[in-house]
Amino acid sequence: MPEPLTKDEINSQTDPSVSKQWDESTPKEEQFKELYKITDGLKSCLLTTIRPNVGPVSRSMAAAKRVGPDFLFLANSHSKKFGDLEHDKTAQITFQDSSNQNWVSITGEAATIANDDPRIKQVYSKGVNAWFGDLGDGVHTGMPEDPRMTLIEVKANYICYWKTTSSSVGFIKEVAQASFTGEVATTGVNRQLFDKDIQQARESTS
After folding, report:
1. Whole-model pTM?
2. In terms of pLDDT, which residue wins out, 67 or 168?
3. H/E element holding 86?
4. What is the overall mean pLDDT for the chain?
C-alpha cells in the first residue's frame, strides 16, 4: 500500500521510493533464491564494460550459464568488449523483466578465458554458431573448437535488485492511488547483497 511522505525523509534528503521498499528482514538465503528465480527466467541481459576514452558500453547478451551468483558468457574474442576488459575488468550485468518490472543489477569483475577451457563445450548450444559464421576453412566454424569462441566469466561483488510484490493490476492501482493522494507507491522490495553475502552464496554452491 502507498505510504505517506515524511518530513524526516525530506530533511535527510532521502529518496522515499527507495527507502520505503528496502528489505533487510528477509533471510539472505531466500533473497538469493528469489534473485536466481528472476535471472534464470530471463533469456538475455545487458553486459556493460568500460571502454577507454568512452565510458560504459552495453550490449545485449545471453547468459550461457549461471553458477551461483556468477555468470558465464560465450563471446567472440574479436569483439571490442575484450579490449575493454583488458583495460578495466569491471563489468555490470543488468536484467529487466518488462512483464512485472523486476530488475537486477550485478557489478563484478570479469575474466576472459581461453578457448581450451572445457566449460565452453559444456555451455555451448545449437544456434550459437549463427553469431560467429563458418569461414569454411575447418577452423573458424562457429563451433566450440573455433579459436574465436571465448568465455567471459563475471564474478559478482555487489548485487542490487527489485522484486515486485504486486500483480499487474495491483501495480497500476497502487501507482494511481499514490499519485492521487500524494503518498509514495510501494509496489515491491529492493534488496542489496554485498561481497560477504555473495561469497557465502558462492561457497554454498561450490
Report:
1. 0.92
2. 67
3. helix 80-87
4. 94
